[in-house]
Amino acid sequence: MFITIIIKMYLEPFLINAVLAGVAIAVITGVMGCFVVWRRMAYFGDSLAHSALLGVALGFAVGVAVNLGIIIICSIFAVLLLWLQQKKVLATDTLLGILAHSALSIGMVTISVMGQRIDLHSILFGDILTITRSELWWIYIGGIIVMIMLVINWSSLVLMTLQEDLAQAEGVRVLLCNLLLMFLMTLVVAVSIRSVGILLISSLLIIPAATARQLAKSPEGMAILASVFGVTSVGFGIYFSFELDTPSGPTIVAAAASLFTLLTIYLQGIKKK
User: Fold this and answer.
1) How far apart are CA 91 and CA 271, in angstroms?
2) CB 27 within 8 A of CB 230
3) How far apart are the first and last CA of the chain?
4) In the chain, alpha helices (H)
5) With CB atoms counted within 10 Å of each terminal CB, which end of the chain scores lower, N or C?
6) Rounded distance between C-alpha atoms, residue 34 and residue 226, angstroms
């Protein structure tokens, strides 16, 4: 299958951008997804992605890059959530529901009022096959920043994830690490929107990491395996999306879900024996 993709890349040049973007996104979402799974932040990732639509509206309204608009709005969303959590106004899941759906609704209303012709389908569900070279630069610059920050702060983030009290005793600035983690997730969402869309980005964060967790024996091993499963899912997704003319975002997520299901069935079968 992957040989077929390589051959088609020469025949269909636009596939080169799709594959390069898919590999980069799979790697960063795989690593970040580990923290989402470890810290049970699946709902936060989903809420952050929902708020990205307001960032898209901001980008078109102000005339700046859409990715920049997403980063600004998602960063405000993350900081506001963290502040409300500190104040203990409401339960976290309640706050996430209010903020996420409010941002999504305001974004939809803003885009409708603007009257501009915007391809909402590609924003909501992604279209990796139409990624341009400039968007590819955004993805790689954002991805490199995320990976550098993760490598530098890996031990502190893992320790904070395992036990916040222990991390504080070891001199880790927990609040700063939480802000960093939220900012990195914001960056990941911003660069991944065009691949799987606002509504499905949380799936690419959760499913490869959850698949890797069944095999990994260390945090680093899980991060590597999650990236490998992510790249594999993207490869299958791009191939079947191109061959069957299906939406690329849902096809990638379906491939990831299939890998998770098959591995789970296989491992459960081994345990029974």
Assistant:
1) 38
2) yes
3) 32
4) 2-11, 14-38, 42-62, 66-87, 92-114, 120-125, 133-162, 164-169, 174-196, 201-213, 219-244, 248-272
5) C
6) 7
Provide the token pair at 128.
């990796």
> What is the pLDDT, as a whole number, of residue 104?
81
Residue with tokens 């309640």: 94
Integer Cα distance of 52 and 31 in angstroms = 21
Model confidence, pTM? 0.85
- From the centroid of its chain, how far is CA 235? 17
Nearest to 204 by CA among 176, 185, 183: 185
Q: What is the DSSP letter of 115?
A: T
Amino acid at 260: F
The CATH fold assigned to 12-268 is ABC transporter involved in vitamin B12 uptake, BtuC (1.10.3470)
The phi, psi pair for 64, rounded to 5°, reads -105, 175
Angle at 191 between CA 2 and CA 96, to 5 degrees: 120
Residue 63 has φ and ψ, to the nearest 5°, of: 90, 25
DSSP state of 129: G
Residues in the chain: 273
Token look-up 């191109």 returns 242
Write the pLDDT tens digit of every residue in 59-78: 777 777 777 888 888 888 88
- 254-271 pLDDT, tens digit each: 999 999 999 988 888 777
Phi, psi (deg, nearest 5) at residue 40: 55, 50
